[in-house]
Write a structure and sequence with these properties.
By secondary structure, the chain is mainly alpha-helical. It has 8 helices and 2 strands, in the order H-H-H-H-H-H-H-H-E-E.
Length: about 190
Amino acid sequence: MSTTTNTDLRQPTDTDDVIGRARADMLEPGHSLLQRLVATDSRVAPAIARLSLGLVILPHALQKTLGWFGGPGFSGAYEAFRTTMHIPGPLAFLAIFAELAGSIGLILGVLTRVSAVAVIAVMLGAIGIVHLPNGFFMNWSGLQAGEGFEYHLLAIALGIVCLLEGGGRVSVDRALMRWRPANGGSVSPVLMER
């Protein structure tokens, strides 16, 4: 009696969803970590989530790194993180760098999942260290002591979409995913059929 696995039964024309995309082969165990990180398809929704999050976070990162848009610049942000928020120097540097690299990575769709994790981590840190005591709502009326965390929850939700779905259409990840080593490891690239 022979044992047959699900992968033995799959045909090249089999699909995993109602709109005709086969996704199972993107995450099979034989693929490298890089291939699993860049795995995505050509859908528009993940691209919208990725670009929206990246474009909204980038100005905040530029405030902290270059002093644009009325921001303090790197030295001012770094000192505020260390003295006012009591964040250790290496973590303060990492938070500033993660916000900048994560937003640029999301806009370009480069290692979208890693970029999304960076932005999610920054947003969770902002909630935990600064915004949680101020409650849920933003400070539209100026009556609170500071801003609430509703904005951060939206950013986290978009980040989770990017983490789960990848970069989507028009991303560097998508371009990288379309090329994979032939025969599970040969150097020559073979264009995937998606």
